[in-house]
Amino acid sequence: MRFLLNPGGNLRGSVRVPGDKSISHRAIMLGALADGVTGVTGFLSGADSLATLAACRAMGVAITDPDAAGRVTIHGGGLHGLTAPSAPLDLGNSGTSMRLLAGLLAGQPFASTLIGDASLMQRPMRRVTQPLGLMGAQITASASGTAPLQITPVDQLRGIEYALPVASAQVKSSILLAGLFADGATWVTEPAPSRDHTERMLTAFGYTVERDGMRVGVRGGGRLVATDVAIPADLSSAAFFLVGASIAPESDLILTDVGINPTRRGIITLLQMMGADIEIVNPRTFGGEPVADLRVRSAALHGIEIPEEQVALAIDEFPALFIAAACAEGETVLRGAAELRVKESDRIQVMADGLTALGIAADPAADGLRIRGGQLRGGTVNSHGDHRVAMAFAMAALRASEPITILDCANVATSFPDFAPLAAAAGLRISSDDNG
Ligand SMILES: O=C(O)C1=C[C@@H](OP(=O)(O)O)[C@@H](O)[C@H](O)C1
Ligand SMILES: C=C(OP(=O)(O)O)C(=O)O
User: Which GO terms describe its molecular function (predicted)?
Assistant: First the structure.
C-alpha cells in the first residue's frame, strides 16, 4: 500500500486518535493473568495489540473481540491459568509483544515458541534472553540473538537484581513480568526513566510494585485482581498531528483524551522547545494514567539541540520530530539515540534517506541525526514498512512544494489503522492505493 499526498493544506477541528498501543498490550496481558473479569475500553484495534490478544487467546484465555469503542472483556484465569499454545505464537511486527511475552512465558510450566514478521525476526532479543537466563529461564534464540525464541519450562525462576544497559521499557517489563513467577524479589535499575505503564497497571491490578529511586521491584507469588481499564488516546499517534498542525499555516487542532504520562511526554517538551504552540487542556486521569486534551496551533519553529535526557521520553516520536526539524529555522541535532537503529526499521538511516529525497540536508551519525531546516520538495519516499516513518512523511506534505508518494505503508495498521481517513478529515490531502 502507498500513500499519495498533495501538497499544502492545514489541520483543523478535533481528533481522537486510537488507544495507546503500549497500554493496550499490557491490559491484555495483565487481564489474562488476573483473577476475574477485566473490562477494557479504548483498546487499540491495531495489528500489534491484536497480536498480543491472539497470543493470550491461544493460551486458553477467553477474550472478546474489540468493538468500535475498543471495549474488550478478558476472562482471566489467574497467575497460573494459562495453557500451552498448540502452535508458535506469531507476533507480527510487534517488538513489545515479543519481549513482554518472553518474560511472561519464561515462568510457565509449558513450552512455547515466539515468531514474527521479517522485521521482528531481525530485531535484537538478547536484551531479554540474557537477563531472563540469569533468572533461570531456558530460552534459545538464533545465533545472532534474534527470534524464533524457543522457551522451555524450568522448575522455578529466581529473582535477580539487574541493571539495564539501555533505558528500555520493554526489557524492564519483560523482567518484571517474569518476576511475578520467580522466587523472592526481582529488581530492575534503569539508567534513565523509560515508560512506566507496566508498573502503573500492576498497581491498578492490586499487585505491589516497590520503587527506590531508579530501582523498581516486584516479589513473586502475588495475585492480580481483575479491574476495569480505560485506555487513553496514544500520544505516539497524536504526535503526527502535533507536528502537522505546528508546521501547517493556519492550523488549530484539538486532540482529545491523550495520555500525557511524564515518561512519555518528551515530544511535547521538545516541540515546545522548538517554539510550538501546544496547550494542555483539562488534565485528568484515566485509572492510573494522566490524560488531557491538547490544543495545537501553527507556530514558527526553530532548530534545537535535543537534550539527551529527553531521548527515552520521546523514543517513538523521532520520525515525526524530524519532520518538524525539516520545517524549522536552523539546525536540529539528535545524539544518544542509537536505539532508533533497531526499531521496526533503522529509523536514523530511513528518515535521513527520505528527508534527502525531499531536498532536506540530513546527516546521519551512529547514534543520531543532524537536520537543517529548509524547503521540502515533493518526491517518493520509501517507509521500509515502518508505520511511524510512513505517517511522519505524510505530514511533511503540509509544507511540501509538490506531491509526495510514500511506499510500503501497510504497516500503518499496526498502530493506527484509520490514520488516512482521520488525517484527511482534519485537512491532510491524503489518499492511498495498492500500487507500492
Ligand atoms: O514498552 C513499550 O510498550 C515500548 C517501549 C519502547 O521500546 P524500548 O523499550 O525497546 O525502548 C517503544 O519503542 C515501543 O514502541 C513500546
Ligand atoms: C518501536 C515500536 O514498537 P515495537 O517495539 O512494539 O515494535 C513503535 O511502535 O514505534
Answer: 3-phosphoshikimate 1-carboxyvinyltransferase activity
Question: 112 in a domain, yes or no?
Answer: yes
Q: Say whether 22 counts as a known binding-site residue.
A: yes
Q: How far apart are CA 129 and CA 148, in angstroms?
A: 12
- C-beta of 172 in contact with ligand 1 (< 6 A): no
What stretches of 113-265 show up as alpha helix (H) in DSSP? 126-134, 169-179, 197-204, 235-247
pLDDT tens column, 214-271 = 999 999 999 999 999 999 999 999 999 999 999 999 999 999 999 999 999 999 999 9
From the list 389, 361, 395, the residue with the least C-alpha distance to 375 is: 361
Which residues, including other chains, have CB under 8 Å from residue 323's CB and lie 6 or more apart? 243, 247, 392, 393, 395, 396
Helices and strands (H and E) in the chain: how many: 12, 25
How far apart, in whole angstroms, are the C-alpha atoms of residue 29 and residue 89? 14
The predicted complex's ipTM stands at: 0.99
Ligand 2 pocket residue status of 432, Cβ below 6 Å: no
Does 196 lie in the same domain as 321?
no
20 CB under 6 A from ligand 1? no
C-alpha 270 – ligand 2 centre gap (Å):
20
Question: What dihedral angle (degrees, nearest 10) is formed by the CA atoms of 161, 190, 24, 145?
Answer: -70
Domain annotation covers residue 222: no
> Within this chain, do residues 243 and 343 fall inside the same structural domain, yes or no?
yes
From 25, 29, 93, 96, give the residue whose CB has the most ligand 1 atoms within 8 Å, as the site to mutate: 96
DSSP 3-state assignment of 106? helix
CA of 172, closest atom in ligand 1: 9
Regarding the beta carbon of 96 and ligand 2, being less than 6 Å apart is answered yes
Residue 183 CA to ligand 1 centre (angstroms): 27
List the CATH number of the domain containing 192.
Answer: 3.65.10.10
Alpha-carbon gap, residue 400 to 263, rounded angstroms: 33
Q: Which pTM does this prediction carry?
A: 0.99
170 lines ligand 1 (CB under 6 A): yes
Which residues are marked as active site?
316
- Claim to verify: residue 31 and residue 14 sit in the same structural domain: no
Ligand nearest to the CA of 165: 1
Q: Please check whether residues 179 and 73 belong to one and the same domain.
A: yes
C-alpha cell at position 324: 518538524
